[in-house]
Structures are given as structure tokens and as C-alpha cells.
Amino acid sequence: MDDELRERVRREAETAALFNALKHGSDAQVGAIMGPLMGENPDFRPHGDEIPGILAPVIEDVNAMDRDQKRERLAELAPERVEELDADDDEDDGVLPDLPNADDYDEVRMRCAPNPNGPWHIGHARMPAVIGTYAEEYDGEFIVRFDDTDPETKRPLLWAYDEILDEIEYLGFEPADVYRASDRLETYYEHARELIELGGAYTCSCPAGEFSELKNNGEACPHREKDVETVREEFEAMVDGEYDAGEMVLRVKTDIEHKNPALRDWVAFRIIDTPHPREEAEQYRCWPMLDFQSGVDDHLTGVTHIIRGIDLQDSAKRQQFVYDYFDWEYPEVIHWGHVQVDAYDVQMSTSTIRELIDAGDLDGWDDPRAPTLPSVQRRGIRGDAIVDAMVELGTSTSNVDLSMSAIYSNNRDLVDDDAPRQFLVRDGFDDRGSGADESYEAVEVPTDGGPESAHPPVHPEHEERGDRDIPVGDGVLIEAGDLPADGDRVWLKGYGPVRYDGERFAFLDADIEVVREEGVDVVHWTPADDNVRVRLRTPEGDVTGYAEPGFADVEPETVVQFVRVGFARCDRHDADESVAYYAHP
Ligand SMILES: [Zn+2]
């Protein structure tokens, strides 16, 4: 290679390394630069052997620069690529539409208002992902408010409060404040009393069916015109627990002839006999309905922008009556459609998942078949991968489909560079009721000749992380589907080429060119007599198999790549087997 060409290679490589490092905010890698460099510069190809040697020091220099230095240098070498980077950044910022009238507020403040009746399913991640991202973009904040005011039909699970906060942390966000509505009953009562004084509410003892009939005809019930004194007394009796469920409610006086019957004199408080599971709230019997509670709280906690489902459009209209009585400004509202997630047989519904767990059909909330955040977390999927996919969906009013493959692809980008490589030979499958139809079988093949052990790299793009040491012994296990025909060759990955004679593998003297030029398959394997029994839990069922001996030393929580199988999170090493959770291909 002459000096001129060498200089061009250096320059092109430096440009590519700078661009990659800036774009991904991480160190540039020889492997990631090499392919595109050769693709775009056909005249480099005849010098393929020399190029990595030129690349390595260039990339090392680039990785030693800080961000500003990198930008400066890239602007010298290729100003158009700096523009390309900036254009990409603008695109990323533009995924979420601007918040309406954000300039009218000193600080944007949004809220996530979960019902703590269970850990979160994947769809629940959308709210914190989007409002957390908005809070970052607008330099604002968001709060978490547990709307836990229905101790009966949406009964809170005590441990779900902390679990949900953990899930928000897993997604990478931190709320500015956390509220529990069940701590705030006295506040709601105060506002009910004020509303009564303003003539905006009345106690009503009509049986529900009778009221409904009157209301649908646009007719007031006899209680609507009660004097304030009586309403006040009856409401205090509700608060004091003097009525049973269904005997008395407090209604907001709206417009009994409103064209939308759902807005006519709606219930603000009712009696629930079942005590709240939280000790702090177990004495209360008079509970606000969600529209009253959340409407009052949004105002009192300074929420400027609300996102809620398109099916809840009536909520803002109902609450507007209360806001009018109190002369409050209603926050900005964005309505969005529902999100559906593919790839799961189990319905994305807290109550359904809870029933399946209670019936023993799922092991728990983090069963890999459950479409929940605890489950994907256990599988080694990072919160960022979910947030990015959720933000990509935007906030449109139409229903949107979240493809798990988008999350998997994001996650692969996040974990690949760190994930140590491991071999896992699969040999069995238990569908655990999923109905999936997969089968695996391992076959043992004695080997002759060749080195005593194999030394594949821990990571093919990180030589500095060293090699694994896999003793070959007298034979290997491979997956039945990888067994070559009699007389054919395979390349045992990290070890070398072997020929199969129908019974044994004989080691061959050949270099890796046979893989490229003669199409010899590269297969993964483990030693037949020195391996680790593994249970790989997947959304379709449990795959069993044998990993290379080094898997026993992989720390739990580590995400590995089982070569040709997929990424998985090492969960634990039990006495009789190691357990990993499958993430994605
Ligand atoms: Zn009535």
C-alpha cells in the first residue's frame, strides 16, 4: 500500500470513527468501522489484511478525545457529517409533538396517576416514558399520584405502590413528588363542603336505577333542590359512616338536561363498606369517585398538562363543572389512543394477569409469558429500550401497536457491546401450557485430533476482554439440527473445522477461509463431559440445554449472548441447574 492510499484510509477511518462515536455517544469500535469503510471504498479491499492495523491506532486516538474535540475534528475533516449529526438530533427531538400552551406556565408539571391494583403491564410504561421525556425536554417535572380511592372493585395491592415506583426508576425517571389519594380524604371532604356551600352539590338517596331513569329523561330527582343545611348534615353523616353502601351519594349539580347524559349530576362521593387495605385509610367509608378526586388533585398539585385515554374524554367535561364552581383553570389536556402490544398470548390487563397468577397458570408477575414490566426486566431488557419505543409511538388519538421487536432491537443496541458470548446447546423444551411447538435435541459426537481446548473470544469486537477456555475432552455436544451429513464438514466455533464420518468428528487442518469460500457451517457446541445444565425461560416455554463450563462463573444479572440462540439474562445458579431468562434474538 502506498503512502497516499494509507493516508486516505486513515482519514476515512477517522471520519467514520468520529461520526459513530458522536452519533452513539460511545467509543468507536474497529468492527463497526471496518465494514462500511470497505463497502464505500472498493479500492481499499485488496488491502483488507493491512487495514485493521491502520484503523486500531486511529480509533484509539478518537476514543481518547472528549465530545467537543471530536466535533471540532469532524468539522475539519468532513463538515457535512456534522450537519448530518445535527439533523438526526432534531429528528429525535421531534418525535413527541409540542405540549399545548407550554409557554403560559412557569413550569410544565405532568402527572402519572396509577391505580396500585397490581404491578405494571408493558402498556403502563407509556405514561411515565412520555411525561418523563416531556419533563426532560421542557425542564419541568412530573409527579406520581396513586389514585387508590376504590378499596373494593379496584382494590389496591399493598406492595404494588413501591413496585410501581421501582418500575418508574427502572424506566429511568424520578418523580418530583409522590402522593397517595387515600392519604388525602380530608382534603376531598373539605372541597366537598365548599362545593355544598356554593350550591354545587347535593346528597341523594335515590336507588341508582331510579335516578338513572330520571336522569336519562332529563328530569331532576326530588333531592336536587334540598336546602344547603340538609345537604351539609347528610354529607357529614356520610363522612361519619352512618349510611351503608348504596344508601346515599353526593352528586355534583351540573345540568340535568345536558345533551350528554354522562355529564348530568354525576356522583362525587359514595359509601364503600369494605375497608381500605392501607392502615392509614382503613377507617374511611365515604370515598370520592375518580373524577372528583383527580380533578381536585390536579388543581391542588399544580398539574399543567394531563395526558389521558381518548375514551376518558367525558372526564374533563365532568370535572369542568367543579372547576367552574371553584373558579379554577382547567389544565391542558392531551387525549391519546390505546396501545396494543403484540407477541404475547396473555392479555395486557392487570386483572387478567392477576387471575392467571391466582389460578397457578403463571408463576408470578415476572413470569416470562406475562406482558409485564417485572417480566421484561427479569429478561434483561433495559428500561431505556422500552422508553424509546414508547416515545416513538407519539401521542396520537388513534390506537397504536407497539411491536416487541422494536423494544428488542433497541435493547440489542444497548446490551450487545457488553454481553459476553457463551455457547448453549439446547436439548429440550417444555411449553408450560403455551401451546408452542418447538423441539430441541443435543447429540454427543466423539472427537479425534485437534487441540485440547478452544479459546473463542469473550466478545468478538473486544479483544482486550480476553478468551474463554473450553476444554474439548473426548467429545462435544451439538444440536441435532447442526449435525452434518456423513463425510461433511462443520466449523466448531472457536475451535476449528472437523469432518463427520457418521460417528466421530475428525479435526482438520484448514483455515477459516473454508467457511467463507466453501460454505462450511459454523456451529456452537459444548464439551460432552464438562458443561453446565441450563434452564432458559422464554415467553413460549422453558428451553433446557447445556452451556459451556464458564457459564457457572457468569454473575447473576449479567446479560450474555448465547451464540446463535439469543441474548439472555443470567438469573441464578441453583445446585442442579443454572437459570437464565431469554431476552430476544
Ligand atoms: Zn335523588
Can you give a write-up of this model?
By secondary structure, this protein is an alpha/beta fold. 34% of the residues lie in helices and 21% in strands. The strands form 7 sheets. It has a 7-stranded mixed β-sheet with strand order 12-25-26-27-23-24-13. Strands 21-18-19-20-14-17-22 form a 7-stranded mixed β-sheet, with no helix packed on it. The chain has a 4-stranded antiparallel β-sheet with strand order 4-5-6-7. A hairpin with a 3-residue loop joins strand 18 (489-492) and strand 19. Helix 1 crosses helix 3 and helix 11 crosses helix 12 (313-326).
Shape: elongated
Kindly state the percentage of residues in helix.
25-40%
The largest sheet is: 7 strands, mixed
User: Approximately what portion of the residues adopt beta-strand conformation?
Assistant: 15-25%
List keywords for this structure.
585 residues, alpha/beta, 17 helices, Rossmann fold, seven-stranded mixed sheet, Ribosomal Protein L25, Chain P
SSE diagram, text form:
Blueprint: H1 3-24, H2 30-40, H3 51-64, H4 67-77, H5 79-93, E1 109-112, H6 126-137, E2 141-146, H7 160-170, E3 177-180, H8 185-197, E4 201-204, H9 208-216, H10 228-239, E5 249-252, E6 267-271, E7 286-288, H11 290-300, E8 305-309, H12 313-326, E9 332-336, E10 339-341, H13 350-358, H14 373-378, H15 383-392, E11 400-402, H16 404-415, E12 421-422, E13 424-430, E14 442-448, E15 453-454, E16 470-471, E17 475-479, E18 489-492, E19 496-500, E20 505-507, H17 513-517, E21 521-523, E22 526-527, E23 532-538, E24 541-547, E25 559-562, E26 566-573, E27 578-584
Parallel strand pairs: 1-2, 2-3, 8-9, 10-11, 12-25, 14-20, 18-21, 23-27
Antiparallel strand pairs: 4-5, 5-6, 6-7, 13-24, 14-17, 15-16, 17-22, 18-19, 19-20, 23-24, 25-26, 26-27
Helix pairs in contact: 1-2, 1-3, 1-4, 4-5, 6-15, 8-10, 11-12, 15-16
